[in-house]
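User: Hi! Is it possible to get a structure for several chains at once, not just one? Here's what I have:
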Amino acid sequence: MTGSAVLRRAGAGALVVAALALGQVVRTSLPADSLIAAPYERAGDVGAPVVMRYATVQATGVDGSTVIDDAGSALTTPGVWVVVPLTVTAHGEPRRLGYAALRAADGRIFRADGNRSSFETGTVQTGLTRTATLAVELPVEAAAGAELLLALDATTDTRRDDMAVIDLGITREMAETWAGRTDAVAVPTSADAPVATP
Amino acid sequence: MPDQDPAAETARRRARISRSRVATRLAERPLRDLGVLGAVALLGATAAFGGLEPAEVEEVAPLVPGTTTTAAPLEVTVDRVLWTGELPGAYLEGEGNRWIAVTATVTSTHTESLYATELDDAVALIDVPGLVKEPELGTDRVSASTVLHVLDGSPLGPVQPGLTYEAVFLFEQRGDVEPPTDATVALVGRTWRSWSWQSGEAWLDPAVVARATLPAREAVDSTEEDA
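Assistant: Yes, the chains can be modeled jointly so their relative placement is included. Here is the combined structure:
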């Protein structure tokens, strides 16, 4: 092999490495992966229905305190409890909303899927409506401006599907008032909504 | 002077046949030079993709009660070590067993809720005899059986960002073993990084960041203490 042929091959190899490196820089610098996988946010407010592919949800109020009564257990928080009663109507097939969280104005996520912060709809049969109440504890400063996020997948995979984003209308004054309350806010268990009689 | 190494002689003969001056020169270099050249080529190639991972050296600080220590993603302040029998909200597996309790305040610095995976082993016990739970795989530390919120006795979880919880980490000890007079407490921190074998990131690589042997005593009713 002549020297010029070796140089040509070495140059081709260097170009390949440079192309791969450039591709790595582009891939890690741009948020392409997160944008492609992002959920489809459906915005709403308290008192207004939010229609999604698999369910319609509606927040019917918002309340708060430092203590909640969760099925007879008094839970005290070092921050503030935000309690949101909701209605959930299933579309297409029985549904069970698996993802619920509050998103603070700074982007922090406060999930409602444990022993303390919780949200459980039970199985909502097709076309029927159930009531369920969400309770999440968070720092007082994070409650002001917080949004309620609701989605379907129980494995927390919210990619590429509808997600309700409900503005709870919590002001700083409301959050500070709740932080001074010690009376317990009730968190009832989920139940079928009463059917309106004609 | 021609080299006596037959392998090098073969390489030179092939280089002469191929009429490559570069190959000829490389074949005449000592092997140690080629090793250096290879290492330089490796570093140069990997530098284009972020470089090689640095070797981590584990540093374990002394654990001081009352002092906040970062055990990522938590900040932990250990208070004391107690032991007791029955405890409301906690259920012993064996009759006659007892709880060894490490009281601490914990604050999450993560941007999302944390669960048992990141909480239960944040405070661990080392070399305490008679613990019911097995040590973490490949280590000598035992993570808590359960973690309770002191204010209301509820199981702690999820741990929400920015809230400071008064927590008690409970470790079950067999009743046929003498209660401890001291216990080695370790704080375990994790690293936020990508999974090696799937997409996504998580708090991985648990490692001890602080430890100390602290005195342990029997828990007494707080009303008795006040009296």
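The radius of gyration of chain A is 24 Å. The interface with chain B takes residues 1-3, 6, 17-18, 20-21, 24, 33, 73-79, 101, 107-111, 113-117, 136-139, 142 of chain A (CB under 8 Å).

User: Great, thank you!
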